[in-house]
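Page 47, continued from p. 46.
Same chain as before, 79 aa.
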Amino acid sequence: MEYVGHVEPGGYDQVVFRGDVAAGEFIAFWLSGDRVLAGMNVNVWDVVEPIKRLIRSGTPVTPQALADTGRPLETLATP
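Result:
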């Protein structure tokens, strides 16, 4: 499990899950509006850098795009 970013309690609007929560293999994203504030990967590897890019870039992203496992995380953040 790895967590990046920072969210104060109550400082987010929603949590979006990508992957299989029941199987314990997922990424959780904390959002404020359409911006990712933090992310935590659980038994999903090699995603810390794309999550950091999403947070740092401030790129607007929809919950549907974040949850879509068929869409690579790398395609969601603009440099």
